[in-house]
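Reopening this one. Same input as before:
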Amino acid sequence: MNSKKTKRLLSFVICVIIAVACVAGVYNGIAVATVGNKQFYEKGIATQTVADECNKQLNQKYKALAVKSNLPLDVFYSVTVKFNTQESLLQSAQALFDENDSLLRNGSRYGYFADTIKEYAKANSLSLTKEEIDLTSREAEQIYCDTVGIHGLEYLEDAVAQKREEATRNLSFCVLTAMIAVALLAILHKNDGHRLLSYASVGIMTGGLAGLISFVSMLVFGLYGKITIEPQAMSLAFEAMQRQVLLYRSIASLGILFVGIGAFCISQYFIDREKFRHQTRYLKIITNN
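Same output, byte for byte:
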């Protein structure tokens, strides 16, 4: 194998390395900004969509409690006015990353239900014992905590920190690998910077296209893990967050692809211009002879 073919083969291998580094870099870079970031979960959980689903479930559950307790539905469902559901979801999500209770069992909801039931009983001359008010208030609080509070995610704080550290380390490795690959191309094509840019751009384009196809396919065909979390509305939130991550990765891959295309066009422009110069110089020599 002559040196020219060897150089092409090595350049091709380096292009593949650059492409893999680009795909892995996008994957881990987006992970740092999303699944490795607690704000991503807080915003993903405390959405109006999740709040509406929680309110729907609260309405159904409090209807059953209203029948059971012989009290109007508004006595219980009015808690969504006193404690905005979306704000409560944000409070619950933030509690996953601090020392507070993500189930929202801080007594404020119980106190609200107890006071509301007492006021209603007094206004309507109902005779309710202290025990009856206490039991009904606790059941109403439990319904709220089961529906709006987040269950079974006590591990999330450590998991997010671990994911952020791992993704940051992997991203650094991808960047270093890409830099080394470009440096190797520079050594192979030390006398031809345009060819260096051409090969590097092909690697970048390939990585961007591969990532775009992969992440869009996963997004379109729903190829992501199904998460079962209580309450049910939380499962919907986490599935939406997974789709959001894939969307971000798809957009980032598209950006990488455009960068590669731009770099390739620039390299081809200079290569074509250099060829034109050689041809012009050759024609001048022939004409002079």
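So the earlier flakiness isn't reproducible anymore. For the record, The two ends are 37 Å apart (CA to CA).
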